[in-house]
């Protein structure tokens, strides 16, 4: 969504509203587990979460320590554990191991699992099979879209391509439809929706179902046309060389969630600093030219 320089062009929607909504929802979910708690975060969610709610924000809502999910025994001594994860079977089984290990050690804790962007029946079935369904509480964090810049938003759903186009698993179509419905609810009705491909059609149908089920509110439209294009329409373009500086940074440092980590040696200490790509023009510095 490139912002036109013409004076008569419409203003861009305020996509920062998306960030405020998901931050408020996350805070609400964390406060449902009152008191100090340790938070275990799925590695894929570390970068997006940093764009939504930083460490100081989490600390204000009684998050004591933060850990990355590493699929090994935990070292937390907190009486309350909260897990912020993608709905993956492997991660749910690891949580079951943590809870069962505490049971074997006769250690009582409270557990809460927050699935994002949604929870699946398969995950709840694993909890039941492992005998801990009644020991944990589960919730959904509807984190569908992440604003990276004034005119760039991202679904941040790395599994979508592999699951849908390679494995034929269509479970994420509903998620894409929900993201479309969120935009429709916040920024008014779309003038027209154009789609190319089977997945685009299913996403459109999912969105239509949610619109018909929900409450209709008249509001001014801030988004005109929507274009849905399946990835399998063009597999080649993502493999082409990126002939801009930002593309070179992506090839070497890997841009993720609108930023990249860069190692800087200060004396004898090597530090990693996060530089954001969006929000301002990316201009190479002398030190980055040395890296490149």
Automatic annotation (TrEMBL):
Keywords: Protein transport, Transport. It comes from the Eukaryota. Coiled coil: none annotated. InterPro entries: Sec-1-like_dom1 (IPR043154), Sec1-like (IPR001619), Sec1-like_dom2 (IPR027482), Sec1-like_sf (IPR036045). Belongs to the STXBP/unc-18/SEC1 family. This is Vacuolar protein sorting-associated protein 33B. It comes from Ilyodon furcidens (goldbreast splitfin). The gene is VPS33B_2.
């Amino acid at each position: 969504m490139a912002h036109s320089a013409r004076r008569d062009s419409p203003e861009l929607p305020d996509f920062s509203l998306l960030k405020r909504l998901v931050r408020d929802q996350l805070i609400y979910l964390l406060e449902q587990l009152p008191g100090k708690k340790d938070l275990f975060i799925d590695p894929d969610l570390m970068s997006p979460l940093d764009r939504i709610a930083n460490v100081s924000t989490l600390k204000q809502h009684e998050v004591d320590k933060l850990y990355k999910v590493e699929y090994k025994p935990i070292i937390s001594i907190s009486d309350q554990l909260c897990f912020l994860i993608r709905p993956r079977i492997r991660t749910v089984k690891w949580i079951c191991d943590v809870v069962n290990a505490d049971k074997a050690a006769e250690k009582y804790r409270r557990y809460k699992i927050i699935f994002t962007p949604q929870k699946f029946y398969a995950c709840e079935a694993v909890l039941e099979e492992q005998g801990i369904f009644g020991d944990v509480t589960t919730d959904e964090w509807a984190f569908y879209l992440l604003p990276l810049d004034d005119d760039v938003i991202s679904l941040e759903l790395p599994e979508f391509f592999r699951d849908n186009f390679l494995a034929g698993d269509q479970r994420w179509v509903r998620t894409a439809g929900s993201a479309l419905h969120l935009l429709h609810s916040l920024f008014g009705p779309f003038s027209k929706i154009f789609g190319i491909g089977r997945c685009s059609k299913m996403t459109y149908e999912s969105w239509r179902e949610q619109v018909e089920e929900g409450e209709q509110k008249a509001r001014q439209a801030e988004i005109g046309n929507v274009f849905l294009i399946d990835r399998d329409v063009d597999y080649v373009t993502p493999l082409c060389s990126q002939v801009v500086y930002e593309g070179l940074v992506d090839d070497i440092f890997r841009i993720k969630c609108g930023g990249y980590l860069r190692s800087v040696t200060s004396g004898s200490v090597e530090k990693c600093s996060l530089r954001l790509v969006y929000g301002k023009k990316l201009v190479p510095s002398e030190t980055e030219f040395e890296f490149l």
